Amino acid sequence: MTKTIPSQSSSLDDWLFYLESVHPENIAMGLERVASVANNIGLLNTSSKIILIAGTNGKGTTARCLESLLLAQGLSVGTYASPHLTHYNERVRVNGQELSDQYHVDAFHLLEQGRKDTALTYFEYGTLAALAIFKRCEVDYVLLEVGLGGRYDATNIVTPFASVITTIDLDHKEYLGDTRELVAYDKAGIFRENTPAIIGDLNIPHTMTDYGDEINAKMVLSGSDFIFKEHADTFSWQYQQYNLELAKPAIPSQNAATALTTLSVLNLLPSESVIKACLANLVVEGRFEQLSDQPLVYTDVAHNPESARYLASKLLSYKDKGFKIHALVAMLADKDKAGVLKEVSHLVDQWSLASLNGPRGDSASNLQNALQSIPHNDIKHSYNSVAAALDVILPTQQNDTVLIVFGSFFTVAGAIDYFKK
To answer: Where in the numbering of this chain does the Mur ligase C-terminal domain appear (predicted)?
Structure first.
């Protein structure tokens, strides 16, 4: 591989290697650069209706639910998500399908011609490339996941048909602030005047609604405008004339309710029978995804306290059935390790801690230090990688035990790769 500029006949791997080298920072806040490049090549002049989706957690599952419900009505849909688990192509879907490498290469080549001297981060390249692909494919709707926060994220250069906020919690504190009020204000930056803004969080900070009122966004709020309640095996959703009871899907019911409300606001909600079929078939990779049934192994991308609480609710159902829980954890250095581990510690019978390789990966010893600060079972082992841990754990795992591998997208990717091999 080389740092010279790849061509339209270069491989996707060559392009990705190049993109990682052309901007000194992984994250660079601000919209001026990315908007300038988008305008240079006409990416913002599109007939597609764009739904922006922000939130601390739940963006991917909400987008997948929206995608399924739109596709079921014969509409064409482009979906942009990040990060990917095992390969870059996962970030862009058209009508629910990943695309060939050449689509991405063509888009990167277009950007390279149009950016001139403007530096772009890896994420900004990916965002603009996705917009280029969706314009090329002339999709009816674009589901655009916000990468970080909202106000200054690269995705926020578009003019949304609707904006969606899933949940609000503390993550990326160095960029978004260390209170929910600050995080909420940043995420509210994706709202637009006289445009639907659907908020699914269960405890909405006033900074978000204050900003929405200030710019006259058409806010639709969870808990007042729409309501969902979870039951043993179902959840109910109420919004205006709708009052449905639906089987719990494989994603958080809160995110399904937010997706249903969004489509209802936009007059795009399908029939009840179609809704039920879509929810029953929803599968989202890396979200309490089963990798094996003998032994019983799940994996989850939970990497902040809120997502860990949801993971705990899934593990509790197994605990109630008499299963023991063995947790294999690997995390990034900039995450709230103690906060995440605390949310599941009361359910875990045995811990295995693994190091994550890479520039942001944390060590098993730092995880162990974080674990010392909270009550936990003392049975624990440390490994230098997720794969090394699985080599030891799986051959001796008992039938009465669930192994949950979690803590990061990289952790999940490592587990998925291990089982594929």
So the answer is: 286-408
- Across the range 63-84, mean pLDDT stands at 96
End-to-end CA gap in the chain = 25
The structural architecture, per CATH, of the domain 12-280 is 3-Layer(aba) Sandwich (3.40)
- Say if residues 125 and 147 touch (Cβ distance below 8 Å): no
What pLDDT score does 224 carry? 95
- 421 vs 415: CA distance, rounded Å: 10
Cβ–Cβ < 8 Å for 376, 351: yes
d(CA 295, CA 314): 18
Q: Are 175 and 149 in contact (CB under 8 A)?
A: yes
| Closest alpha carbon to 93 in 64, 72, 114, 73 | 64
Confidence of residue 410 (pLDDT cuts 50, 70, 90): very high
- What tokens does 243 get? 């009052």
The upper half-sphere exposure of residue 211, i.e. CA atoms within 13 Å in the direction of its Cβ, equals 19
Q: How far is CA 51 from CA 30, 38, 190, 370, in A?
A: 20, 18, 10, 38
pLDDT digit string (tens) for 288-333?
A: 999 998 899 999 999 889 889 989 999 999 999 999 999 999 999 9
Answering whether pTM is above 0.90, one says no
Amino acid at site 396 = T
Question: Domain coordinates of the chain in residue numbers?
Answer: 12-280, 289-420
Cα dist from 417 to 57, 387, 411, whole Å: 24, 9, 10
| 3-state secondary structure at position 404 | strand
What is the C-alpha separation between 109 and 113, in angstroms, rounded? 6
Arch. (CATH architecture) of 289-420:
Alpha-Beta Complex (3.90)
* pLDDT band at residue 380 under the 50/70/90 scheme: confident
